[in-house]
What we know:
single chain, 373 residues, alpha+beta, Naphthalene 1,2-dioxygenase Alpha Subunit, Chain A, domain 1, Rieske Iron-sulfur Protein, seven-stranded antiparallel sheet, 8 helices, globular, binds FE2/S2 (inorganic) cluster, binds fe (ii) ion
Amino acid sequence: xxxxxxxxxxxxxxxxxxxxxxxxxxxxxxxxxxxxxxxxxxxxxxxxxxxxxxxxxxxxxxxxxxxxxxxxxxxxxxxxxxxxxxxxxxxxxxxxxxxxxxxxxxxxxxxxxxxxxxxxxxxxxxxxxxxxxxxxxxxxxxxxxxxxxxxxxxxxxxxxxxxxxxxxxxxxxxxxxxxxxxxxxxxxxxxxxxxxxxxxxxxxxxxxxxxxxxxxxxxxxxxxxxxxxxxxxxxxxxxxxxxxxxxxxxxxxxxxxxxxxxxxxxxxxxxxxxxxxxxxxxxxxxxxxxxxxxxxxxxxxxxxxxxxxxxxxxxxxxxxxxxxxxxxxxxxxxxxxxxxxxxxxxxxxxxxxxxxxxxxxxxxxxxxxxxxx
Length: 373
Ligand code: FES
Ligand SMILES: [Fe+2]
């Protein structure tokens, strides 16, 4: 792990245009979202074979599919005939076939073209030959699932995923990925630029004020330490697990089995640049994938995991409501931040060197990529 070195913010944040300008957003699409490993959602949105989840991110319409063997594929959500969008909402496919609403070509879960009615016009079931069918399957993206997060590499040339993820994979070994079980997920539509959502996640300063129910208070926030795992993976660690004043005072929840006692006390929060946010605690994993839809709109998959299922349905619902309640508070806040970015005076704000190291590191990572080409 690279030790956290202090970033000089000089009080200068990114200019307001970085959050509202559609030309800058176009460049982000090209430089970040088409070139790097990006997350698009999580596996728990397609729990069963045959489940499909459509999503859009940075101008791409994608389709996440759970195959019969439980593996996950990501395809362009585009029919190979005339290019119609195949699926417009999450659903279970009928008979494991994805059927185009335009002329009814259908595709198997593994992407193969299965049927193209009246292909030669003379008989209903006349099919294109095997070679033609093989060439007209759904177009698949290079994808990897890590801790249930679905990552894709759009242009197929990003670095090896294992090398990219290794620093955080190693760091989170004690919160074993084998133990995580899906608790719930929810889709959000945020009226704010995706970068504000990432910066907010990395901002430990707002926790006592915006989310007092988290329990750590200012005493906890003051003990936060920035962590840099690699050039593209960074965040902070702070007290907040078991202990007086935490939400676990009154709850008996299952914790990660291999977590050493000293780590029971801490929350770790990371951004996997550009758009993946992950938080782990002794009894919890939270994931947010940010899907920009334009300069001022972001879709999020917000997902929670636990190392052991809650003891009752009531407790489960309470945990979900607690977690989503925190994200609802952030949603309100992000809308407020975006509004000010469209004013000429948006640059007249001041990032604090004492508190805003992680958001500043995010901005500098963004600048490094955006100034390359
Ligand atoms: S566009 Fe899909 S079948 Fe024609
Ligand atoms: Fe927050």
